[in-house]
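Long-time lurker. I teach an intro course on protein structure, and each term I like to show students one example going from raw sequence to a predicted 3D structure in token notation. This year I'd like something fresh instead of my usual example. Would anyone be willing to generate the tokens for the chain below so I can use it in lecture? Attribution to the forum is fine with me.
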Amino acid sequence: MVDGLRSEPLLSLRDHLRTSRFASQFAPSLVHVSGTIAMLKERDPDVSRAEEMGISLFAGEAEDRLGQVLRDAWEGKLQPAYNFMNDLPDLENAAMPLLPVARVKRTFGANTSFDAGRGCPFQCSFCTIINVQGRKSRRRSPDDIEQIVRANVAQGIHSFFITDDNFARNRNWEAILDRLIQLREVEKLRIKFIIQVDTACHRLPNFIEKAARAGVKRVFIGLENINPDSLLGAKKPQNKITEYRRMLLAWKQVGVLTYCGYILGFPGDTPDSILSDIRVIQKELPVDLLEFFYLTPLPGSEDHRKLHESGTWMDPDMNRYDLNHVTSQHPRMSREERQQTYRLAWETYYTTGHIETVLRRAMATGLSPGKALFFITWFKGCIGIEKIHPIEGGFLRCKFRRDRRSGFRVEPSWLFYPKYLAETGWKQFRWFSLYLRLWLINHRVRSDARAREYMDLALEPVLDDELENRELFQLETAQAYVAQIRRLDKVARSEARQAKASVV
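-- Reply from a regular --
Happy to contribute to a lecture. Here you go:
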């Protein structure tokens, strides 16, 4: 809301905002605009084209900033650009993100979202967050979080996605989790959460335990790859493959479902190496869900800046920069090979045999196999039936006749509805068939009298000799990294002995 404006002018302003003339003059804050302004020396071609069309650009974050834009719009004085990239707002006591219940309930499970903090201290080259939201941690207070939760509970919303790119690096994580624990365990609020964390979160004392008590039911982890060279090349040395099992098992112990992001298309990747790595993950890492993404030069990332400055080809259609399309060249794979490998990656991980393994691991570790089955069905069906990424799909695809992208005509009722009903009926039949097949697997697992005794390589406790015995560490790409880890361990043990001897 714009301070100082009465309700009558606001109503008029709302109508004014709906007009095509205003829509052609103002563009909201987008990662594309903010990211390219932050990273490129000159204007991005698409951003320049928007400016030439008379569109006003907004770079940065809207808190305490949008009022100025609305005032300028009201007075017909919109500036060509509003750049707040060097003036990121403090989040304590900032405007509360609250979506109306009617909008939230259009998503399955009625999940809403909010950010507890922004900014990330790491320097991953494929990431836009560090360049758009900055590397300095800014965060909401526990009071702010409680207010957001209570406001949503009051309108019947109990499921939340905390959208911090890495909640484990939010300096207020413990105070926030303590407050949520109080709301759940003392006031008995039925609230649950999804969070995103890094692969070192288990090193924070009490983090995983408190997250589970606070109501975290699912956790997204940026695993990214099991090739240390790829991780180092992407400036993600904080991902240590020697810690992956320890971290994943810690989440298993508290009954939280894990789903991990995995990037395909690092420079050293080949079709064979990718599929081989996925099979190693299936055998040795206790991951529940694995979701795949193309390595994409997102506008606002360091990868995009390097390709832009070198003049390397990138897809000119920004609609394809969704992590699910090939948008740049690869030194060892053609576009067709990358697309085929992407499909095979999903098919390789979500085989019937491995789905049963995931369900058995869930049963053995106290995680509901039914919950795991639900999400496996969703992931496998979105790729196989809807042909879209799971984060863009679900079990029932709602389409609205008048909701069309600019430039596409609205179909007449006599064409749209019969086609939509036929498509929906066929897809629902396929969804039901898929679920039935997987349900039979789940039933077999749950009926096994010894299901809770199940054990495999992934569930075995972490032992000191893992570097010698695990296939994960015998891969050619891991050998140099493992040798370095061994040297560091040897030095640490030697220093410990010397310290002990000096004390004696």
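Some talking points for your students: The radius of gyration is 25 Å. Residues 1-29 have pLDDT under 50 and may be disordered.
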